[in-house]
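Usage example:
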Amino acid sequence: MSTRTPDDGTVTLGEHGAEVAFRRVYPTTPDDLWDAMTTPARARRWLGALQGDLRVGGTYELRMGEDRADADDVARGQVLGCDPPRTLELTWQFPGEQPSHVRVTVAQDADGAVLTLVHARLVERAARGYGGGWHVVLDQLADHCAARPVRSWAELFDERAARYAGDAPNVTRTTGGAAPGAS
Amino acid sequence: MVDVHPLDALGEPVRRRLVELIGAAERPAGELATAVGAEFGISQPAVSRHLRVLREAGLVVSRPRGTVRLYTVRPDALDEVGRWTASVVRAWSPRLDALGTEVARGRRATAPAADDVASGTASATHEEDA
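Running the assembly step on the lines above writes:
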């Protein structure tokens, strides 16, 4: 993988932590994009089974693979901030991983609704993994917003994961301080 | 969703190793992560992502045991891989037999005239020549 595309995220590896950031534009309104992300019936079509209380102080559970509480790929956490349809800020706990932090913003621009996603306070390996993982998920969201059949994880995963491996152009190293956006 | 062929899912070393391990014995994801973690330097979440590919390709399923889920290989999907391989072998074996005949026939007889090839008696003629 030698060139970046606008859909690619950026993995930033700092001395005190790593993060991954995406910016995507979806051909819809911020309200609709927010609805696609937070309404369980819609989230299920591209992201996974989502349940919980999306209010500040509430908790959530997101089953990204199998729809079972004891599955291996279930993210859980607390809602740190929720301002529909603009910002959602979460703690993120995935099995086998240290707690991390996810912040999503939605804004209007000339081309549609702009989503930014920053997943921070990660170790390098996790940041690279979430690079590929979120890339797939945001592609699936694009399918959902465009009313296309949503492509499967298995179909997209290898190609997307390779974009954040090794010294891919989507991976940058910074020196000094925490990775930007980590707070 | 587009179905992913089991062979596509198996075209990745970590996933092949996972299928080998799961094929040998049912295991929970945590144990699989430990087993392949040292070998490939990957974490449990990374193993989860690969297991999801294997599940979606129909190669493995999970079932509950106590507080964990055990992964098991689906024989049907592996049979499909075997059938594909067998079909390729079947397609090739007459040609490889023909190659054997050709090698046995030897170099002197390997450039038949065009009308010999067209004629049903060509090979018999050549064998006499050889």
